[in-house]
Amino acid sequence: MPDTTPTPPSPPEPSGSPTPETHVIDYRAAEQLLAARDPRGAVRLLDSVIAAHPENTAARLLRARAFFAAAQLRPAQLEFELVLEREPDNAFAHFALARTHERSGRHEQARRHFRLAAALDPQPEYLAAARFEG
């Protein structure tokens, strides 16, 4: 005769995959790490956010800033360029990309992006970097 005793329910599996709420928490924590001068920690947190949400331009911009702060100029450049593909009128991304080019010794590319940043948003810092009159 088959055993008809009910089997107890299995305990719930621990959730191994991050939730959207976890990604928001990671993004906010990455902002704080960057402000606390831990850009590599910020990049680590943002990697999972971007893997789950590759279209998230804000996360990419924050990761670009973290790469720049960690002196990882090539990854910073690639992220800033990706942001600008999606948002060509993002003055800050132009300015930050210009700074990245400047640190890499590519002064002509830097000048172009400084000027674009200043044209899009005539902030004093952007105007001074572009060498425009303020």
Automatic annotation (TrEMBL):
Residues 1-17 have a biased composition (Pro residues). Keywords: Repeat, TPR repeat. Pfam families: TPR_19, TPR_2. Signal peptide: none annotated. SMART domains: TPR. TPR repeats lie at residues 91-124. The keyword Repeat applies. Residues 1-21 are annotated as: Disordered. The keyword Repeat applies. This is Tetratricopeptide repeat protein. It comes from Streptomyces polychromogenes.
